[in-house]
Amino acid sequence: MKISSLLAIAMTLAVFIPRARAEEPPTQLWIESYDSPVEDSIDFGNFVAIDGPDRIYVAGDVETSHELLLLQYDADGNLEWERRYEGGSIADLTDLDIPSPGEVAIVGYVLGSNGAEVATVKYDHLGNLMWDRRRPLVGFDSENGPRLASDGDGNLLVSATDDGDYLALKYAPDGTLLWSRNYDGPAGDYDIATDIAADETGEVYLTGVADMFVAYATVKFSRDGDFLWDQFESGEFGSVFPPSRVAIAPDHDLVVAGTPESFCGVFQFKIWKCSAATGAVLWSDKAPSDPCFSLTFRDMAIHSSGDIAALCDGTPNGAEYHLQVFRYTGGGTRMWVREFDGEGIAESFASAITVDAAGSVYAVGHAAPNPQNWDYLAVKYSSAGNLEWAVSWDSEDERQDSVGDVAVEPTGDVILTGSSTKLLEGLNVVTIKYHQASSAEVGDLAQVSLPVLRLDLSPNPASRGTMIGYTLPKDGAARLEIVSPEGRRVRTVADGLHTAGRHTIRWDGTDAHGARLPSGIYLAHLAAGGSVISAKIHLLP
């Protein structure tokens, strides 16, 4: 293992100052570079996820040795452990998920002695392998790999492409395969699954392209794997471009986005919302308005208010290539569109987007001052669409550096991960943590009074449920979950924006599906404002 802190070597940090800046640019807390022990390795950082206040997961792959890669950092950037999962002659990690607190799962394509397979791997927070499952595939689409989602019971859902059809797999928390389903488009032609989502009740949604790129097909299965409906969205010219993505809105309906072809024969951004009950389209929007200018959809995120942020890049005005952010209400009203064109940047390219509790939007990718030099790029917009700040980072070799993913901690700290070209050493995974000036300042614990969460339960022990009281020190997002004695999330009791003060809610001793839970010691788990507290609930028979 070869780890070097980039704080110890000279590096260039360029901060782009917007013309009307609302916030100071964030400051770097740390930068860490991972270089696998394989000589001249090519290491990709594709995804980042946060589990609690002190666990940061970075996932990617080691192309040189054909391994799926998972790293865990603590809040200070110390590498706690690394895991490299052998794939064979090909290993391509394509998604990362936190199914329950203290667990992490990855998925990807592998190609070994048994041919092509989709590999799903689950670890605990100490890096112990809990289980791995490989499902053989007939062929695979190297550009659109498997995707991962989890439901309210901690089950893992996997999408992949198998023999020209959609494939959906459902694994129990212990790795038991609960069901496997294939979907073939109406024409019986080649279909590619590109994303999967599951709601809290376990209903499953797949999306992708059907019948040799004729249309996007979104499919719903019940929690037991029964086919419920499919919905199709085509381009104006009869073809669509993968991938499409699907996400569940707070009202339980689903949002889908992709890049269909326009009358002019170029690809454009389209987004639509479907009824979860029937698949009927509730609203849709597309851009640019000129069908002869291109815009490619890259990613989207949904705020707890229902607002949607979508990320694209392209030439929406027929000029330079730049990233664009779209903001919609849950009802489909386009609130604003912002194109990022920073000083000294010839072009900008998009990769991922997320939103924080306040509704601010973070878009990442890479900036290209010139075709040979790519820089990490992160841009923040307020919920109203104001450009708050933009930062870029360029490695000492001034070559190709590109962000793969972004995550925002409840404290407001921002984490980027991606890949950076290093002279004579291939590609390294570089992860950066930034602190925003608008975040809650912790400083010296002896001098600063930190906000405190409070959690109480009555009655406890309880046989027919209990009232859970929780107090929040300030407005913001809060999530209250019930966790089983085995550490599995069994019910989300509250999730969304809260006002400061005391709140109460009754838990009746059932899981997310209304089924009575067995007696035992459960945990009420409250996360808000960067803090996490738990209280034991003794559930009687």
What is this entry, summarized?
The protein is mainly beta and 541 residues long. It is built from no helices and 41 strands.
Explain this structure to me?
- Helices cover 0% and strands 57% of the residues.
- The chain has 541 residues and is mainly beta.
- A 5-stranded antiparallel beta sheet has the order 1-3-34-33-32, with no helix packed on it. Strands 2-31-30-29-28 form a 5-stranded antiparallel beta sheet, with no helix packed on it.
- The protein has no helices and 41 strands.
Q: Which strand order does the major sheet show?
A: 1-3-34-33-32
CA gyration radius, whole angstroms = 23 Å
Give start-end ranges of low-pLDDT stretches.
1-21, 440-451
Shape: globular
Individual helix count = 0
Structural class: mainly beta
If you average the pLDDT, what whole number results?
Answer: 87
Number of strands: 41
Give the termini distance in whole angstroms. 51 Å
Strand proportion: over 45%
Question: Percentage of helical residues?
Answer: under 10%
Task: Quickly list its features.
mainly beta; 5-stranded antiparallel β-sheet; single chain; disordered N terminus; 41 strands; 541 residues
Explain the layout of strands and helices.
Elements (H helix, E strand, L loop, with lengths): L1 E4 L6 E5 L10 E9 L7 E8 L5 E7 L4 E7 L5 E8 L3 E8 L5 E10 L2 E10 L4 E8 L10 E4 L5 E7 L2 E7 L5 E7 L8 E7 L5 E7 L4 E7 L5 E8 L5 E9 L5 E7 L8 E6 L6 E7 L7 E8 L5 E7 L7 E7 L5 E6 L7 E9 L5 E10 L2 E9 L5 E8 L6 E8 L5 E8 L5 E9 L18 E5 L7 E7 L3 E8 L5 E10 L2 E7 L12 E9 L2 E9 L2
Antiparallel strand pairs: 1-3, 2-31, 3-34, 4-5, 5-6, 6-7, 8-9, 9-10, 10-11, 12-13, 13-14, 14-15, 16-17, 17-18, 18-19, 20-21, 21-22, 22-23, 24-25, 25-26, 26-27, 28-29, 29-30, 30-31, 32-33, 33-34, 35-36, 36-39, 37-38, 37-40, 40-41
